[in-house]
Amino acid sequence: xxxxxxxxxxxxxxxxxxxxxxxxxxxxxxxxxxxxxxxxxxxxxxxxxxxxxxxxxxxxxxxxxxxxxxxxxxxxxxxxxxxxxxxxxxxxxxxxxxxxxxxxxxxxxxxxxxxxxxxxxxxxxxxxxxxxxxxxxxxxxxxxxxxxxxxxxxxxxxxxxxxxxxxxxxxxxxxxxxxxxxxxxxxxxxxxxxxxxxxxxxxxxxxxxxxxxxxxxxxxxxxxxxxxxxxxxxxxxxxxxxxxxxxxxxxxxxxxxxxxxxxxxxxxxxxxxxxxxxx
Length: 279
Fold this sequence. Notes:
The protein is built from twelve helices and seven strands. The protein has helices at 35-40, 72-90, 94-100, 118-121, 144-156, 171-177, 185-188, 190-198, 200-205, 208-228, 231-240, 265-275; strands at residues 48-53, 56-61, 106-111, 129-134, 161-167, 243-249, 256-258. A five-stranded mixed beta sheet has the order 4-3-5-6-7. It has a two-stranded antiparallel ribbon with strand order 1-2. Strand 6 and strand 7 form a beta hairpin. Residues 1-61 have low confidence and may be disordered. Belongs to the beta-class carbonic anhydrase family.
């Protein structure tokens, strides 16, 4: 099954990061350069990429060195072997540390699209991000899958940030804007169709190429709202400053842009009264 994709380019959104439920600003720290990322993701136009660590150079194959005739699964296992050896050489203690447990500071809620791998997008590495991905990064308050991930990440892993990420050229968004019968997936896309209906006039007034991007924006904001109505999230925001962010990833440029989701204090307080639960 394939969906048509919206080709609209991503416009620049406000990059100021806001603490959810507060008017105060917050800026996400830029992660340190991932040395292995540089070693294993070189220029695809060359056969190898090289980086030096502690005086030792390591070489990794890049996309340009993979023969098209090879079976994709075979290539994947070969890459895994090379990745494991290189990473163990660059960071000898990493796998031992990961074997003992995890302590990610970010929960990433994104789309299952193959072009949106969260660890790669952020230049991080295994153990840095706890993630949940589905078609079109949809959050609904009755989905036990996402609810379980959110509770575990917030209550037990004690993440400091939750990021909801939408992206350009999203097939799920394009499907929701179309009227073609798709089967079982139509049920999953129902929240997007409701969103489309609620904003019909505004969407229809936009040029066709911009509707998809606007729907991506609306969907991220709706998912953020669902998060902020979750009692587990509300408690963590109030008691330890958990922050929720909405972002859009441009698959055509690799750029990540954060939306302004700041709210008036009155709205925040009303939501606490309505959704916070106590023992």
